[in-house]
């Protein structure tokens, strides 16, 4: 049964229908990159795109790049071999830096493996004397992978690809991914979320109706998506994740254990502590990755590690390894629990769990997840290849006009800052994409000819409590009385999850717009914190919002009186004018200093009642002016 079809904005549902060339699916992973091609409407296969250490064809291209002094790249296994001999020339896990800026350097986990630089507020990486952006480094991986895959395809390739990204990649990270592909000479038909791709690969539309959970633990990212299938149609009910949690963190935790053990060994024999260089760390991480894989099938590992050209002996058991990584596995279960909470379901409602990502091969992960959900996960498709295979099926859907496309959703609400600093949500979180939503706003002051549009992201009630995404100004609004103008603000999120915002004045048709390209990325720890904060502060936030709304009403009343006094103060006696000025002063002071919205609302009502006589005199004057010199018949 076909899934719901979504199509590219501004194009027909089958934009590539006449294209008979073959599009490929790419899983641009933190640890490995995989390319797949569809071999039927519901089946895909991964392509051999590298040669492993045993000189055998491999479907996994390590997402590792080495550079010579001239900046020439060496990608994949040849680069990993250089980790032990020339680690300063090698860079890995670059996916973690996609969409990040120099401002994010202090928030990047395990940043010691990178030699980061800041140039014009752009984040760059120094590798063997070469200064490169994460986008450039990722483009070399994509180009190598696609070139290798192309050699196996008989004609038909034209650079069209579908690339997968973590579900919680924000706009900056998604845009950076598309830019990498463009730099590699590829045309991105669509970016799709990795869990979504896995669901396509498993053909869940043939399963029983109900809820399915995709658990995706890769080298550098973790995503979990809850999918609901009914009559062959899937929707993503809730998502969660951590953009800085994956198998790499297992490696780092193990490396920290060995470093601490090494320093303890030195202390026992009375030697000074050693300084661990970045080259030592890269070598160690290469070793701990191998140890992690070895302990998946063995009870104990005996190893020799090199620090500052000195060898030290170490022994580690599988039980000790499990103890080291247990807190990280627990973090993934906490995220699973939050996703279930968001969807208001419990573990027993889940029909099947799908395993994605090479890190799911770690035995403790399967054990803990099976215990948490009370059932073993599905893993009959190679977890390293399943995402790329789903992307390949998506690519086929776009090029052949098939309907096999899942609907994704946005992880955090999007809205605008309105008067008083209030956040007006336009697109609620967990809205399916692509989507277009709009809302009308009006001017606050008489004669206002411009409006500032401030786009924010988050769940809190006040704009300052959320994340600022972009600001732009709509100019050329016809000067009218406050509230007369109509400005329609439209939010459009395309199939790749990239946001554009436009504002149009209804009378003149003038328009301003912006494509949101945040100056820095938002990782999943920050996102989870924002969601948790909104839940914990919901009641206080609503009180703050209501107070702000009351203050806005007070200021609106004061502005109206100021305008009236400027035009018709001659209608008042000196005592009346003094009384109204006193009313103004009292309400202004109260609105600025009171934290009691009931007190402010009461004062505004009293203010309105006490200024009604003046409004009536102004109306009488206006009527007299309008009727003066006219006959009854004319009226």
- Outline type: elongated
Count of helices? 13
Largest sheet: 6 strands, mixed
The strand count comes to: 30
User: Helical amount among residues, as a percent range?
Assistant: 25-40%
Tell me the radius of gyration. Answer: 30 Å
Name the structural class.
alpha+beta
Task: Calculate the mean pLDDT score and round it.
Answer: 79
* First-to-last CA distance: 70 Å
Q: What's the short story on this structure?
A:
By secondary structure, the protein is of the alpha+beta class. A hairpin with a 2-residue loop joins β11 and β12 (130-132).
Task: Itemize the secondary structure elements and their pairings.
Elements: E1 24-28, E2 32-40, E3 43-46, E4 50-51, E5 57-58, E6 61-62, E7 64-67, E8 73-75, H1 77-81, E9 90-92, E10 116-119, E11 122-127, E12 130-132, H2 134-150, E13 160-165, H3 171-183, E14 187-193, H4 194-202, E15 210-217, E16 222-230, E17 233-242, H5 247-268, H6 278-295, E18 300-307, E19 310-317, H7 318-343, E20 350-356, H8 363-373, H9 386-400, E21 408-409, E22 414-418, E23 422-427, E24 432-433, E25 435-441, E26 450-457, E27 467-475, E28 487-493, E29 499-505, E30 511-515, H10 524-536, H11 538-568, H12 574-593, H13 597-627
Parallel strand pairs: 1-13, 13-14, 15-20
Antiparallel strand pairs: 1-2, 2-3, 2-6, 4-5, 7-8, 7-9, 10-11, 11-12, 15-16, 16-17, 18-19, 21-24, 22-23, 22-26, 25-28, 26-27, 28-29, 29-30
Helix pairs in contact: 2-3, 4-9, 5-6, 5-7, 7-8, 11-12, 11-13, 12-13
């Amino acid at each position: 049964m076909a899934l719901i079809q979504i199509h590219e904005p501004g194009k027909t549902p089958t934009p590539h229908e006449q294209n008979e060339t073959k599009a490929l699916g790419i899983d641009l992973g933190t640890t490995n990159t995989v390319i797949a091609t569809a071999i039927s409407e519901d089946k895909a296969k991964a392509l051999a795109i590298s040669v492993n250490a045993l000189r055998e064809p491999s479907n996994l291209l390590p997402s590792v790049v080495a550079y010579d002094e001239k900046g020439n790249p060496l990608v994949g296994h040849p680069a990993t071999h250089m980790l032990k001999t020339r680690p300063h020339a090698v860079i890995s896990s670059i996916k973690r830096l996609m969409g990040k800026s120099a401002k994010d350097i202090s928030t990047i986990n395990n940043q010691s493996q990178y030699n980061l630089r800041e140039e014009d507020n752009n984040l760059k990486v120094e590798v063997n004397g070469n200064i490169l952006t994460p986008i450039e480094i990722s483009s070399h991986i994509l180009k190598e992978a696609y070139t290798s895959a192309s050699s196996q395809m008989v004609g038909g390739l034209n650079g069209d690809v579908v690339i997968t990204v973590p579900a919680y990649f924000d706009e900056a990270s998604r845009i950076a991914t598309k830019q990498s592909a463009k730099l590699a000479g590829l045309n991105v038909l669509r970016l799709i979320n990795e869990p979504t791709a896995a669901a396509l690969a498993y053909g869940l539309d043939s399963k029983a109706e109900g809820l399915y959970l995709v658990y995706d633990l890769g080298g550098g990212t973790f995503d979990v998506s809850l999918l609901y299938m009914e009559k062959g149609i899937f929707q993503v009910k809730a998502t969660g994740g951590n953009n800085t949690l994956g198998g790499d963190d297992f490696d780092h935790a193990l490396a920290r254990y060995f470093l601490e053990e090494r320093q303890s060994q030195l202390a026992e024999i009375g030697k000074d502590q050693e300084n661990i260089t970045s080259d030592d760390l890269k070598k160690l991480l290469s070793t701990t990755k191998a140890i992690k894989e070895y302990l998946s099938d063995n009870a104990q590992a005996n190893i020799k590690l090199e620090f500052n050209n000195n060898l030290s002996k170490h022994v580690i058991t599988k039980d000790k390894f499990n103890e080291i990584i247990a807190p990280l596995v627990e973090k993934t279960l906490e995220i699973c629990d939050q996703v279930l909470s968001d969807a208001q379901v419990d573990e027993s409602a889940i029909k099947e769990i799908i395993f994605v990502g090479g890190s799911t091969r770690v035995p403790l992960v399967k054990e803990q997840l099976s215990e948490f959900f009370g059932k073993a996960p599905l893993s009959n498709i190679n977890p390293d290849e399943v995402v790329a295979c789903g992307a390949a099926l998506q690519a086929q859907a776009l090029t052949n006009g098939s309907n096999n496309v899942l609907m994704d959703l946005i992880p955090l609400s999007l809205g605008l800052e309105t008067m008083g600093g209030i956040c007006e949500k336009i697109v609620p979180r967990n809205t399916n994409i692509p989507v277009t939503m709009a809302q009308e706003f009006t001017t606050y002051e008489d004669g206002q000819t411009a409006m500032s549009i401030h786009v924010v992201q988050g769940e809190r009630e006040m704009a300052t409590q959320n994340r600022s995404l972009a600001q732009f100004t709509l100019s050329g609004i016809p000067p009218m009385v406050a509230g007369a103008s109509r400005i329609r603000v439209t939010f459009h999120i395309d199939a790749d999850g990239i946001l554009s915002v436009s504002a149009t004045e209804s009378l003149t048709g003038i328009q301003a717009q912006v494509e949101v390209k945040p100056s820095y990325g938002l990782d999943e720890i920050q996102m989870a914190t924002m969601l948790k904060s909104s839940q914990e502060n919901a009641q206080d936030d609503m009180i703050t919002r209501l107070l702000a709304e009351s203050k806005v009403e007070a200021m609106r009343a004061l502005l109206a009186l100021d305008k009236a006094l400027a035009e018709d103060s001659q209608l008042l006696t000196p005592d009346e004018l003094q009384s109204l000025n006193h009313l103004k002063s009292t309400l202004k002071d109260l609105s600025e200093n009171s934290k009691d919205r009931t007190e402010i609302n009461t004062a505004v009502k009293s203010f309105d009642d006490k200024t009604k006589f003046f409004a009536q005199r102004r109306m009488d004057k206006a009527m007299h002016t309008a009727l003066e010199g006219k006959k009854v018949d004319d009226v």
